[in-house]
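B., you asked whether I could sanity-check this one before it goes into the benchmark set. Here's the sequence:
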Amino acid sequence: MKQLVIAIIAVVTLTANAQNIQLHYDTRHTMNQNRESRNYMTATYEMLKFDKLGSWFMFIDADFNQKNNNVGTIYTEISRTFQLGKCPVQAHIEFNGGLFTTPQFSNSIENAYLLGGEYPFRLGGFNLSTYVAYKYNNFAKASHDAQWTAVWEGNILNDQITISGFLDVWSENKDKIAAQGGKKIILMTEPQIWYNVVPKKFSIGSEVEISSNFYPYSTDNNHVFVYPTLAVKYIIE
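And here's what the prediction gave me:
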């Protein structure tokens, strides 16, 4: 999986319209000392490319959350849209997956495959997009689900501040092994705010991960977890 991720980056980097690298200091232990064992760094690579048929988007997160600040989690999402003639709705396909490890064991993050329709639009100075998709979660017993996503990005104050982020809401089986006990609804959003020190090149800012029902080992599935980061971003043109 790691070799595949590296190969994907190498290919898309040659043709990408917009790329950036982010480094986040995740304060989750500071925010929740009873549940989280430590704060750690996360490196993120993002790429967005437009072409005559639609667009590519991908990101890769690497969490340096293991002993001696080694990487413990790698997660990637890759999506593709296709224009459907003059229709304002585009076809959307997506892949999600990754790996994680702890001192005791390691495992895959189950692959997910999405197919749906996406509607990109502009509101004021913001670029927005929303899509609804069928989601196939590749658990031990497959989970057939739905996901709704909204994405936004725009600049304010003469492009000095960038506001961006996403909101995901999806369903999946509560029991990933035997598919018993019905479904659960998961919410995840990660709004970001950036101060553009050097416009279109270097920014400092923050991301706030807000989630409900996301962590499988949570004893309180109705609890909302809020984990802010301190971050820097370098834009590659």
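One thing to flag: The two ends are 27 Å apart (CA to CA). Otherwise nothing jumped out at me.
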